[in-house]
Amino acid sequence: MTTKSIIESIIFIANRPLSKKELAKVSGKDLVEVESALNELINDYEIKNGGIKIIQNETETQMVTSPENSQIIQVFLKQEVSQELTPASLETLSIIAYRSPISRRELEQIRGVNCSIILRNLLIRGLIVEFADDKSIVSAVTATENEGEEENKIYQVSLDFIKHLGINDLKELPNYEKLNKDVPLSSLAE
Fold it and tell me: For residue 174, what is the DSSP state?
């Protein structure tokens, strides 16, 4: 697999801008290789003139939709947000409700799959809130992150989610005390 292919996959799946240092660390490539691969990718996407672009400033890079398609994307996102949640989103939301505060790593360990896109969608819908480890709220859309900060984020359900359920406190959820305990999940099945 080429460095270019690796970098393209990483920036495609990322739900936030990534620094060149972070791309080098994750890909296991040196900074010069990463910068060269990024330049090639940016050029490839410019020549293609398609619906995806790669943008960057001095420190960060992100894959985005083409500005020419912004009105159509806004209509699509509005429809997406108003649609029912997928089973995977409901499962993720339930885990966050019962086990919060919870990190993405812990969530993915429970679910067994990458949850970044689901978390992003739940953040956009306003159903969950993302915090830095110091408990300060992180913006779902405009957050710029330093290397390693992603692992320090924790998630919990939003007040809007609690209001939608018609409860005053998460402790009113069925079996909350049993499922909220910090014990291995396998022991809860008994």
Answer: T
DSSP state of 37: H
What is this structure's pTM?
0.52
Determine the residue type at 77.
L
Sheet holding 18-19, edge to edge: 18-19, 60-65, 52-56
Task: Give the total number of structural domains in the chain.
Answer: 2
121 shares its domain with 59: no
Residue 184 to residue 133: CA distance in whole angstroms: 23
What does the DSSP 8-state code read for residue 144? -
Return d(Cα 145, Cα 17) in angstroms, integer: 8
CATH at 46: 1.10.10.10
Alpha carbon distances (Å) from 36 to 12, 16, 42: 17, 21, 10
pLDDT tens profile 125-156: 889 999 876 554 444 333 333 434 555 789 99
Position 77 in a domain: no
**Residue the block writes with tokens 């940016």:** 42
Please give the residue range of the domain that contains residue 26: 3-68
